[in-house]
Amino acid sequence: MPTMADVARSAGVSVATVSHVLNGTRPVLPHTRQAVLDAIDALGYTPNTLARSLVTSRTRSIGLAVSAISNPYFTEILQGVEAAALEAGYSLLIADPHDDPEHERKVVQLLHERRVDGMIVAPSARPRELVGYLRRHSVPTVFLDRMIGADVLEGPRMAGAATPDGPWYDQVCADSAEPTARLVTHLAGLGHRRIGLVAGLPGLSTTGERVSGYRDGLTAAGLAFDERLLLSGNSESAGAEQATAALLALPDPPTALVTANNAMTIGALRALRRRGLSVPDDIALCCFDDFAWADLFSPRLTAIAQPSRELGGEAVRVLLGRLDDPRRPARTVRLPCAFVHRTSCGCPEEPGGTGESGHIASSTLSEKGRTS
Questions:
Q1: Which one of 18, 73, 103, 179 is least enclosed by Cβ atoms within 10 Å?
Q2: Which residues have CB under 8 Å from 298's CB, separation 6+?
Q3: pTM for the structure as a whole
């Protein structure tokens, strides 16, 4: 089996140079780097990852903990994480916390025990145990999709403190409030005065932001908030089906509906079908989260599309930046969503039938010393 010394002899460089190329520990001239890579390829050299980790205290691995990996949204996030990690020379260990706080802490501990260099976590609605574990063990972590508020991030944060109390954690998410308001004002502009929202799991930052956006949209349209038109679907299809059925059973039911994620859109459609209602003839429908088959429904679903792959890739880049500079101020990164205009809202088919997509303004790539 070829060794690092064999690679060095073949490339005409020192063993230290080969090490720098493999580990990225020092810049190497492009032609020298290529000579080393050519020698590695020609000899079939495979680095000893375990031995390298003992020397560098790095395993070049990242832990990813996200729930509902079967959900198309999180599947695309995973693809973005994997692609960015691979490009940077990192492997990926994946676990599903199942949105359960106790299980969440356990799977994060298991990932940590496998000596990952850092973690990317989509936290549950009750993440205190998770944050406590990460804080006690000074694990470099990026929170993804779901933000954690200041009420949880209290006390000493992490090693390598940028402030006396330690830095706040890096966080990466899509904008949620303004896109939801866009859906509401669009429906109001079509003449709807009773617009319902099937919201997500209470306690998640995404749920809170989309509820806030819903209320902002009503205010912008000059419509009063009616608490009876806002029900939780708990971010699940079955919960959304029950919530939609309850909304339809009101004495004065909504004429338009906004669903706050893709799973709940399926549940709402199931409830509408059971009632024999047609979209958009009987009730208009807009949804948060676009997905691959949204364009195949009849009618085609008007939706907010999140930049899921970009979120995953950005989370990796932010984490690697944290590993390179543990003392830098933490960042909150927000990426913009796109409004995908189709026909479930009651609008006529667009020419060409592909739908109109437009980005919604947000605080893209904003850096904050603390999460707001």
A1: 103
A2: none
A3: 0.78
My answer on whether omega of the bond before 101 falls inside 30° of 0, hence cis, is no
Tokens representing 133? 């574990």
Angle formed by the axes of helices 15-23 and 4-11, to 10°? 110
Tracing tokens 């906004």 back to the chain, one arrives at: 258
User: For residue 218, what are the CA distances in angstroms to 62, 226, 259, 294?
Assistant: 42, 10, 15, 25
Is 167:330 a contact under the CB 8 Å cutoff?
yes
Buried/exposed code over 248-287 (b: 16+ C-beta within 10 A; e: otherwise): beeeebbbbbbbbbbbbbbbbbebbeeeebebbeebbbbb
Which amino acid is it at 48? N
Gap between the Cα atoms of 115 and 143, Å rounded: 18
For each of the chain's 372 residues, which pLDDT tens digit applies?
788 888 899 999 998 898 888 776 678 898 998 998 898 888 887 765 545 544 445 678 999 999 876 677 888 999 999 999 999 989 999 999 988 888 999 999 999 988 899 999 999 889 989 998 898 888 999 999 998 876 666 544 443 333 434 446 899 999 999 999 999 999 999 999 999 999 999 999 999 999 999 999 999 999 999 999 999 999 999 999 999 999 999 999 999 999 999 999 999 999 999 999 999 999 999 999 997 777 777 789 999 999 999 999 999 999 999 999 988 888 899 999 999 999 999 998 765 544 555 666 443 333 333 333
User: CA-to-CA distance for 326 and 162, rounded, in angstroms?
Assistant: 8
* Of 323, 306, 265, the residue nearest 144 (C-alpha): 306
Q: Is the dihedral of CA 28, 32, 36, 38 positive or negative?
A: positive
Amino acid of residue 117: D
**Closest C-alpha among 292, 318, 313 to residue 303:** 292
**Listing from the earlier edge strand, what are the strands of the sheet with 356-359?**
230-232, 195-199, 256-259, 284-288, 302-305, 338-341, 356-359
Q: Please state the φ and ψ torsions of residue 91, each to the nearest 5 degrees.
A: -95, 170
